[in-house]
């Protein structure tokens, strides 16, 4: 496949596409496997980093053993195989994260032959911007998570009871929350991508901004399980800021596109007027495709 051009790849028969898909799936799986091995080696460090938001909560007393890593004893392992299954779960999550540059590239490389030059450029820019935005969402969730757990674990007030958090369920919960926050931070970038592809205009984004803000805050109230205004706002406000940044980028892009179209010959003529054709030959190296012009 390495010697194929983009046009050749776009015209590959079905068998060749299936073979290429198989090769790229194998490469992606190997990258995830290598990352999972690394995650398994450092599983205890990852577990300590993820359990810290709940283990450091003051006023919470668990039924588990109070250790240096978890002073309040809130995290417990239920069953003889709990630690083994949790280790593999952590390893798999770490493998997906570490291997993400490879498997994201494999997905893009498989789809790229069917994309136009402009779409290839936009998709690469999208991936490059999506990764730091996703990581920013994860970081916000990590620092907000102690507040979320404080509210959840103190919901009944001073009942005198102890807390029992199954380690596997807790890890699944915090990883799901991080995923929700990360994906939420990427959503405004999708709007920018749609604008650059000509699917969504900045005018439409400005017109419905009140509805979008309302939807964002409703989503924040649903996504954050505590339901408190602080947790909801901690998720919704950054997304709103990113949304208005997306509107600004889309506005600049629409203006650039309008100026480029206005500079084209005959752009200001009415539908009943005919434009003059410039039949002067130009050097072939100065030629432009319609895609580059638009």
Describe the fold and architecture.
With 294 residues, the chain is an all-alpha fold. It has one domain. Helices cover 68% and strands 1% of the residues. The protein contains eleven helices and two strands. It has helices at 6-10, 14-41, 43-55, 82-98, 100-111, 117-153, 167-196, 202-207, 209-223, 229-262, 290-293, and strands spanning 75-76, 165-166. A two-stranded parallel sheet has the order 1-2. Helix 6 (117-153) packs antiparallel against helix 7.
Record field, number of beta strands: 2
Summarize the biggest pleated sheet: 2 strands, parallel
Low-confidence stretches: 1-7
Proportion in helices: 55-70%
Rounded to an integer in angstroms, the radius of gyration calculated over CA atoms is 26 Å
Instruction: State the distance separating the first and last CA atoms.
Output: 31 Å
- Tell me the structural class: mainly alpha
Q: Count every helix, treating DSSP H or I runs of 4 or more residues as helices.
A: 11
Percentage of residues in strands: under 5%
Strand order of the largest sheet: 1-2
Q: What's the structural domain tally?
A: 1
List the helices and strands in order.
Answer: HHHEHHHEHHHHH
Q: Assign an overall shape.
A: flat
Mean pLDDT: 78
